[in-house]
Amino acid sequence: MDIFPFVLAVLLPFMGLALLLFRTIARNLSRGGIGLLGSILLFWAGLVALPFCIFAALVPTLNYLFRTFPFLQAAAWDVGLAIALSVGLLLTYVVAAIVGAIATWKFMSLRKLQIETAT
């Protein structure tokens, strides 16, 4: 069983939702609706919560596929799927740490630019 598609099934929605979250928070930060510390904390909290939400959405869907199609009911498929989802979740947190560090730097540079243009 190739785990690459299942890892992508976890990583791609995470990256899309993280980008959406970043853009929303950056827009609110540039408009002055949220402070720097609040934006950083909100983004990191979102990065921690997103993988669990994606995992909670994928597991019932994959369980439905497993129950619906009897030819998938093999122990190797079930164990391989669990390993693939675990690797995807692990990689999601590695990517989240990198994305969070870059986003924190971007938020701080955006706030610095906002302060410089105001003075």
List its salient traits.
elongated, 88% helix, single chain, 119 residues, mainly alpha, 3 helices
Please tell me about this protein's structure.
By secondary structure, the chain is mostly helical. Helix content is 88%, strand content 0%. The protein is built from 3 helices and no strands. The protein has helices at residues 4-31, 36-68, 75-118. Helix 1 (4-31) runs antiparallel to helix 2. The protein is elongated, with a radius of gyration of 19 Å. The N and C termini lie far apart (59 Å). The model has no long low-confidence stretch (mean pLDDT 88).
| Largest β sheet strand count, sense and barrel closure | none
Number of DSSP strand runs: 0
Q: Structural class per helix/strand content? A: mainly alpha
**Global Rg:** 19 Å
Helix run count: 3
Low-pLDDT stretches are none
Percent helix, as a range, is over 70%
User: CA-to-CA gap between the ends?
Assistant: 59 Å
Backbone shape:
elongated
**Average pLDDT taken over every residue:** 88
Strand content: under 5%
Helix and strand succession?
A: HHH
Write the topology of this structure:
Layout: H1 4-31, H2 36-68, H3 75-118
A few lines on this structure:
This protein is mainly α. Helix content is 88%, strand content 0%. The longest helix has 44 residues, at 75-118.
